[in-house]
Design goal:
By secondary structure, the chain is of the alpha/beta class. The protein is built from four helices and five strands.
């Protein structure tokens, strides 16, 4: 698999790491698993999606239709995207706009966590971003 999902703050914030070469099938599997996380969590559930180690990805938005269900889930809060790839940012931003979900993009995961903590004061203190998830930049 070219992704991993882990709760960062149980039932409220999870990290989706995407790495290596990503296929349309990977996106479909990831979207289904992400929906389980969001539905099992306590709304709003926030997602920190780390794309910094992604190499290849599908570039056609229409091939990513399975991922749109994720953006339409009512329990989903905001998506925080960690990236250094302009095309991936464009695709994710477009999908979020189609679904009317908010997405914020950052290069630094520490900054994303700081902003999320300020955005939702009902969250417990969010732990630091795992250092073993370091970028390959």
């Amino acid at each position: 698999m070219s992704y991993s999902l882990t709760w960062h703050v149980p039932k409220r914030v999870y990290i989706c790491r995407i790495f290596g070469d990503v296929t349309v099938q990977d996106v479909s599997h990831m979207a289904r698993e992400s929906l389980e996380y969001i539905r099992d969590g306590d709304a709003p559930v926030y997602v920190i999606t780390d794309l910094r180690q992604m190499k290849k990805r599908p570039n056609n938005i229409s091939t990513l239709k399975d991922a749109l269900a994720l953006f339409q889930e009512p329990n989903l809060g905001m998506i925080y995207l960690i990236h250094s790839d302009k095309l991936a940012n464009f695709i994710a931003t477009t999908m979020a706009q189609i679904s009317r979900k908010e997405l914020r993009a950052y290069r630094d995961p520490t900054r994303a966590i700081e902003v999320l903590q300020k955005f939702d004061p009902t969250l417990p203190t969010i732990p630091a971003y795992p250092s073993d998830y370091a970028s390959t930049e």
